[in-house]
Write a structure and sequence with these properties.
Elements: E1 3-8, E2 25-28, H1 41-56, E3 60-64, H2 71-82, H3 87-97, H4 106-123
Parallel strand pairs: 1-2, 1-3
Helix pairs in contact: 1-2, 2-3, 2-4
């Protein structure tokens, strides 16, 4: 399927590589699905940077969390934002493609918007 990067947003365990000779990178970003423990912006930036590099090289990225509702959705939205989508476009696209996704729950939406502001501030050159 062309997947070259797996971004694991779960706390519970690391992914294991299979024995196939497929060049596959796994990035484990230990995160929690809790309104009390935010997804670190640094983790979102690390995932986005790795994803953009992979996509630029022609590979695909697979992002996952425990149930595909929150943490993986936040990372997917961050990747879409880094590719030029607005936060609203990114959340809508994800929700349209994955009915189980919940990018609008208050604490995930908040971190998607925080990422968007942070990314814009880091990528917009002065003047």
């Amino acid at each position: 399927m062309g997947v070259r990067l797996v971004i694991n947003m779960r706390f519970e365990h690391r992914d294991k590589l299979n024995s196939q000779d497929i060049p596959l990178r796994i990035l484990w970003l230990l995160t929690f699905d809790s309104p009390l423990i935010p997804i670190p912006l640094g983790a979102l930036r690390r995932g986005v940077t790795a994803a953009l590099e992979t996509i630029q090289e022609g590979g695909k990225v697979f992002v996952h969390c425990s149930r595909g509702r929150h943490r993986g959705v936040a990372m997917g939205a961050a990747i879409l934002i880094a590719q030029g989508n607005t936060p609203e476009e990114a959340m809508r696209l994800i929700k349209d493609r994955r009915q189980n996704a919940d990018p609008y729950i208050w604490y995930i939406r908040r971190w998607i918007l925080k990422f968007a502001a942070d990314w814009k501030a880091r990528t917009v050159s002065p003047g």
